[in-house]
């Protein structure tokens, strides 16, 4: 009820490009502040277990390392990602985008995942002040020995939960 999720084969790798879209009751700046790398993300994103900003290039541009919890009763082991992240104005709203980098050593007990080009667009709804349309394009390669059906199940439910968790965080 919070989001609609679609998928199609990715042109970047053998998995899928996911599109998630939903209306969020808040202004674009506040929504994107909760999504991009920074202090809010760990407070509400139940999948993310740690996040470190490794390098900052300018105010809205950084390299971050983050880890995710195991999923589906740990069929999908915890993952580590190192992403380049950039946030900028886009039309009347904001865009936060990223891509994984081959950077640093993989920490023990993690599989290094890889995010192909992805991003979140957040634009205000003209007919409904105080509401924004949040659209995400995600193409995550979890890597490791995983059945594709487990990855597909995890991605769809993770993206749907992302919206409901974000909405709860914005209400506090």
TrEMBL record:
It comes from the Eukaryota. Residues 1-172 form the START domain. This is STAR4 protein. GO terms for biological process: cholesterol import; cholesterol transport involved in cholesterol storage; intracellular cholesterol transport. SUPFAM superfamilies: Bet v1-like (SSF55961). GO terms for cellular component: cytosol; endoplasmic reticulum. GO terms for molecular function: cholesterol binding; cholesterol transfer activity.
């Amino acid at each position: 009820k919070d989001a609609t999720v679609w998928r199609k084969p990715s042109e970047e790798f053998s998995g899928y490009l996911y599109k998630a879209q939903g209306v969020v009751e808040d202004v674009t700046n506040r929504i994107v502040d909760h999504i991009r790398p920074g202090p809010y993300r760990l407070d509400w994103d139940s999948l993310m277990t740690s996040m470190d900003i490794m390098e900052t290039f300018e105010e809205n541009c950084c390299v971050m390392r983050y880890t995710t919890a195991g999923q589906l009763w740990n069929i999908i082991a915890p993952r580590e990602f190192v992403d380049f992240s950039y946030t900028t104005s886009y039309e009347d709203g904001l865009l936060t985008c990223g891509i994984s980098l081959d950077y640093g050593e993989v920490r023990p007990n993690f599989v290094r995942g890889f995010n192909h080009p992805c991003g979140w667009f957040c634009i205000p709804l003209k007919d409904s002040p105080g509401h924004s349309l949040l659209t995400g394009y995600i193409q995550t390669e979890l890597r490791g020995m995983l059945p594709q059906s487990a990855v597909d199940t995890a991605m769809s439910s993770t993206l749907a939960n992302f919206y409901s968790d974000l909405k709860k965080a914005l209400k506090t």
